[in-house]
Automatic annotation (TrEMBL):
Residues 174-193 have a biased composition (Gly residues). Residues 172-194 are annotated as: Disordered. It comes from the Bacteria. This is DUF4382 domain-containing protein.
Amino acid sequence: MRAFLLGIFFLFTAFFLPACEFFETKVEEYLLQFNSSAGTLEQVIVDGYLLIDGQRTDISLSNLSELSVSEKWIRLTIYEGRDTYYLTVPSFNKDFDLVEEYLDDVMTFVSVFHNTLGGIGSVSNFSVEATDTYEGAGSFQLAGVGELQSTSTGQVQDLVFEMDFDFDTSRTGGSLGTGGGSSGGGTGSGGSGSASCDNTIQISQLLSYWPQIGKGDAVGTGKKVAGNTLFSNLKPTDVGLVVDGTSGDTRYVVQILLTPGNLVANKRLDFIHAGRGAPLTSSGAVGILIAIKGGVNDGWQTNYDYGENRDTGNLFIESVSPQIRGTYEFEAYGDGFDNVKNKQLVRLKGEFCIDP
């Protein structure tokens, strides 16, 4: 009888307790996303460095572009100078090989201008408490050593990195990313949370230096960045529109570069440019595709070699508010096209819907 009465008392008191005190608020499945275009990187504290062949780059919010943390993966994107670095690693404490192909339990480090030859990395002190699918806080450390090979010179370069991350979706008033319920959105499919707001990449033809990279169609995220975060010789006022999507085990990134004066509603613009190193002008835009699969990557640009001063496609800016919406279609080339044996060429089109 005493046990029965104690049980009744427990149920009675529990019934009147606030839900947060009776039920566990943590969730097992989560996707915490932070990116520069939505302002949510203000919710991240990062401290670290990237060392390539003795040249050190301090990692901070100024060059970190994206961070995604789920119960399975940690993914981050770093822009520095002309290069873009992508790091993906399973989200649990362990040492991992730096390898060239995606497997279940590996760390992958790739860049636009380097291929990973090998190495070892680690995740330590990983801790996340997610209170909702898209809300929570946590921290972890990343470290690694290895070797990279320059895609342009073939030079082998040493790689070292160390990074500490601390994040909390409630740290500032920034939007919460995919599914966060904020009108800011920006990291989810469609960019702003609207079902009709799409960011797509449709590749009809692709010839890569790496035979394992092929064509595919992807739906992804969209963001607006300063031009000099993609290429250091561009101006901070130059506009970069970026569509980032994945098809199977291949990641495709489209970058569209234009002057700020061309970012107006109902604007039609050709992809025509004087060539690499030349500044952007009001007369045309530059289109780029980067494809990444495992530890290899390839890139095509409308203003590479064969594309210099040629009309290689068209861009249409439909609107600039409340989202930057439009479509693109272009042909882009690899180094040396069309005089090299492997004629690297890509044809693609798509649409974007990006928060300003």
